Amino acid sequence: MRILIIEDEEFVAQRLVQLLDQLEIEHEVCAIIGSVKASIEWLNNNQHPDVILADIQLSDGSSFSIFKEVDIKSKVIFTTSYDDFALDAFKVNSIDYLLKPITARKLKSAFDKLNLMRESFETERDYDVSNKHDVETLLSYISNQDKKYKSRFLIKVGNIYKSIKSEDIAYFYVNNKTTYLMTKDKRKYSLDTPLDELDGILSPETFFRINRQMIINIASIKEIHTFFNSRLLLSVDPEFDDDVIVTRSNISDFKNWMNS
Q1: Quick one: CA torsion of 28, 33, 37, 43, rounded to 10 degrees?
Q2: How far is CA 68 from the centre of its chain?
Q3: What pLDDT is stored for residue 79 in this prediction?
Q4: Cα gap 244→211, rounded to integer Å
């Protein structure tokens, strides 16, 4: 098993080498690299290892930048001194996350899991695809943690401006090419912001675009019904003057959103 260590603290890197030697696995540390830039260059010019041990915080940035630049073929175990990334949810499939100081027990557990997952896949190709999906999911999660979502809207009503909190909005919808928001207390206001733009500035934990015409607040969904043509029909509060439909292409993501 070929292992690449990405770690900018020499003492920590050497400690990882010692811990790996204590594990009952055949391995070779093919390189120890201490920066994002050098890691990208190495991965672009060398055969990818079986496993990468990567510190999240490097001297020239986050190691996540490496995975944005290079299509990684390896299994990844992230290490860090900080637990504020809250990555425990990603201890699935090929991703593991170890909080420093790394111990032999922690490292063994991570490699045991990687071996178990390797045995679980029918082919090595399936194993690689799973890894790519996990890394993309992880990068998306981290990106969303740093992103600031819109918390309020300034609405002009005649000569008066009103500030409406995003949490007080039941849904946004389009009618005759005009965007509207409906508040939870049944007040409707027009917006200059198109739905496509709203889709990128609203918190994905709270709002979901169910079709081309509507974005809905999860708190406004009362009931979910099956509907013809493999779609879903929503009962919402306040009531909408037309059917509130989740299109077929959005159903899988919608169910995951509702179940998150």
Answers
A1: 0
A2: 13
A3: 84
A4: 9
- How far is C-alpha 28 from the geometric centre of its chain's CA atoms? 32
Q: What is the pTM of this model?
A: 0.51
Given this model, what pLDDT does residue 254 score?
Answer: 94
Contact residues for 224 (Cβ-Cβ < 8 A; gap 6+): 232, 233, 234, 235, 258
3-state secondary structure the chain: CEEEEECCCHHHHHHHHHHHHHCCCCCEEEEEECCHHHHHHHHHHCCCCCEEEEECEECCEECHHHHHHCCCCCEEEEEECCCCCCHHHHCCCCEEEEECCCCHHHHHHHHHHHHHHHHHCCCHHHHHHHHHHHHHHHHHHHHHHHCCCCCEEEEEECCEEEEEEHHHEEEEEEECCEEEEEECCCCEEEECCCHHHHHHHCCCCCEEEEECCEEEEHHHEEEEEEECCCEEEEEECCCCCCCEEECHHHHHHHHHHHCC
Residue 116: pLDDT band (50, 70, 90) is confident
Q: Which of 3-17, 102-116, 139-153 has the lowest mean pLDDT?
A: 139-153
Buried b (16+ CB within 10 A) or exposed e, 98-116: beeebeeebbbebbebbee
Could you tell me what percent of the chain has a pLDDT over 70?
82
